[in-house]
Queue: 3 jobs
Job 1
Amino acid sequence: MFRPPDSAVGPARRPISGLYFTAIGAVVLVLLAGFVAWLAKPSTPKRQAGARIEITLPPVSRRSTAVASAPRLPADKDFERLIAGGDPTLIERGPSGPLPIVAEDGRRAWQVYAAPFDAADRHPRIAVIIAGLGRAGLDTQSAIDKLPPSVTLAFDPYAPDLPDWIAKARAAHHEVLMSIPMEPLDYPREDPGPQTLLTALPVQQNLDRLEWALSRAVGYVGITNMMGSRFTAAAPELRPVLEVVNGRGLLFVETRATNPGAVATLAGEFALPYAVTDRDLDADLSRTAVDQALLDSEPIARRKNRAIVAGSLYPLTVERVVAWSKTLPDKDLVLAPISAMVTIPPVAKPAEATAPDAKQSETAPEAKPEPKPAAAQDGAAK
């Protein structure tokens, strides 16, 4: 079939057969048939770019729009759970939940929810506050069960199931405080959480954060600062907060880690029931240090007729408080709830509130009469 290659004309080539032309023709016919079929197919109208498509939606009423933009209120069943065990005359419904109010007959939460205490007992009093309850369930239950009833318990507003925990604490006859996150000196390195009251925030925003914390539960006698060394020293920012606290029938406890805050000075502007701690129990978390802090409170109580110490929810702190409390009867000392320790300053004029002797209720409490009203100290916790 192939001739030998000729060096002059190059390699031999295969002759082109007619079969090639037949195959090419068949392919061309198939392509033409497909093209004709495509032309015969009805065309589907295309939407032009940017064309408008209208879809009819159900009308939105003005009422539904208003509801969507309004602050969310707790569902009725949730609200009922939050206020269980509280006095209905001391509760109003706020944007985030129940808020304490002064009853129409003048009764206040710090009196109604006060733990039982004999106001006629003239022994020097010592109050112990354990803070940070609610987040660690096992430790919280242990503190409620083991600590003497006269120990006051301060709960974390971020804690889950907070109404249930407070109900358990009050059923065990503990007095309850709500801890309010406040700005510390080293904020934001130390951050008490997203609802912290800050000196840089507008007044209304701080009050909104305060009300958020107050609405987590009911049944507490007052509030105490969570951290807050900067905020409690800032009188302009603290003043509206204390005014709201007093207006809602609560007391205020300043847990002081370092320098005095502005609470003692401002309390006289509103006749706010307040107290200031004398010792931190567990700044040094060791058995020796906690025991020494408890022992240090005893001469303070004998000198001032009262002393207040505060610690955190550490198992060691709870253990040492339990052991120390058993020694008090032999020392003629009495453990008291915080409501039995507050000072109620007379309402002072603005000029008097900042006078040098405005803190005499704190520095020389032995010269002051017992906290008033005394009736609040006799009532049982409700």
Job 2
Amino acid sequence: MSPAAFRSADTYRPADTDRPADKPVVQSAVTSTRTAFTLVELLVVIAIIGILVGLLLPAVQAAREAARRMQCSNNLKQYGLGILNYESAYKAIPLSATGSNGSIVPRLTWQVRILPFMEQTAIYNRIDFSIDMRRVQVAPNMILWEVSPPYSRCPSDGYPSVLNPGTANARAHVNYGGSLGSQNVDGVVKTTCHPFTTFEQVMPGGNVRFGQTSNKGQVSGVFSFGNAVIRLADITDGTTNTILAGEVLPGCQWVNGTDTQAGTWINTWGNLFSIGGGVSTITPINEMTTCQNSRRIRDPLCNPASSATMQYAYGFKSLHSGGAQFTLGDGSVRFIAETIDHVMFQSVGARSDGNVLSEF
């Protein structure tokens, strides 16, 4: 064979017609790169995130409320110390009035008298107890009625701290009130909005409305809207079993025209008694009938709050779930459930009814 033949053999390539008919033609694969989610994948991710947020949100809200409740407890602890330090200095629970019915100047509650024991000496030193100080300036463009001490509001309550600031009608509101005990808190007008009268403590001298008396024998609790002098020694039921103060809600009180003084902390005169001065245990804990935008109205005829609904309004209330917090006569702070037996609750409010209490 010639060299040319060898070269022809070396370079021979079979034609397509020489390939078996059943052998496929191999094509090179082209790999594409995807740069985005599909709509289905995106919807799945959004759904998962929504589920996680739904699971976490209640936990976050619960943690925030726990923090607010702790701050509220600390405020009540400060109140307890202020009251007890005042009693230690003056040998009496601070008065809420200088006359038997609160009409004599300065017409200020016990909360004003404990200011030096609450680190508010600067404000206290500006108060002249020989005149009616409620509308007197104690700071530039600020009357006493506008002062809102930092410990006086619970962060769980979004009701405005001050209404009409910078004016003669300014009113600073409060979330803590003294305990009148199982005291009569009848309205100016007595209507069907008085369902709790039967729970009033029976006392030899009578149960005087809002404790407007000089006779401590007519006062159930440790505070009153009169000038009855009460000492720790008068808490014969035991300081660990008797309420000093507890939570209240200013948004549940009677607004007389535009005046919201019933929700404040300083007033003892007129029929708009400040809840800071005192409320009664005859009203069940968290009775919300008179509260603004309430969904827990016992009697629709008694909402909104008015001069006839004071028995509903002047009770201990909070926005904490299931109950309210209180400071007791020994300075401790307790959460009391709104489901407490209501007769027992009267004994926790009364300082000397002689009843033996079980755990509450």
Job 3
Amino acid sequence: MDIKQNFSNYKWLILAMLVIAAILVAIGAPTLVPICVAIAGIVPVLVPDRRMIFLLIAVFVVLPLMYPMYLDTDVTPEVKSMYDAIEELESGSVILMSFDFDPATRPELYPAALAFMRHSVQRGHRIITMALWPLGVSLAEEAVRDVIIDDWNVENPDRTYEYGQDYVHLPYMPGGIVVINQLITSFDENFPRDIRNTPIEDIAAMRGVTNLMDIDFVFALSSGDPGLRDWIMGGADRANRRVAGAATAVAAPEFYPYIHAGQLVGLMGGLKGASEYEELIGILGTATAGMDAQSLAHLAIIVFIIVGNAMFFMDRRRTRF
């Protein structure tokens, strides 16, 4: 193996790794700097192969997920307004969370569900979950297990959240906007029992909740139709409830006009919005780790392009002269 030749072939990559290491130090995220330096050191002994680029991108995606850097993120007004709205509610207020998505968009929306639910539990609010999508019910149960059962109740044994007392799961109900409009009139007519087949009137978490007008805040996690737009039309416009939501990054821009019109209190747009909410509640989780991976992968691609092109033109100029 000709290490000298390999060094010549990979010199742009070595420089790129050192540039990435320098940037990580500059932004206060030195966790992966030793790995970048190590890669730069072993590159000359590797067989030249363009697939090295794909391998390195994979490394930059996986490692931040395993060892998050927790990079700082700027909080947008849309996320801050939602956070402030939950802070302003009196403890014990009733929050309705609608899980209107499925596993296909779970990577973007599930972290938003966890962050919002954690904040609601911190503030001592009652939580009612429901779903306009069939698989949303199981995602709601999983979120409660991650946030309440395995986290909050373990760390706060004197302030535990109990099913039926502090939170309840309502079953999937097909119909979209029709269901929401019916909830304006009555909850028990649409949801006579919870997912455990307990009559609604026997559930303490539903005390004082006869229709949508008794809900203090609606939070809809939406990846399509039915979803957040239906909650805006039914919950915000007709019932005059405070509505906020989370949407996939590609769908988020279509909801900004509703924010500007005052119909939507706030919005988490994709993984970035969820990471902002984690920043506000002071519990950095999967959304922040996911943004670390995304940011580092983008940084690597940009540096590879710049350094690779710079070295290419330098070599071509040296060959000419």
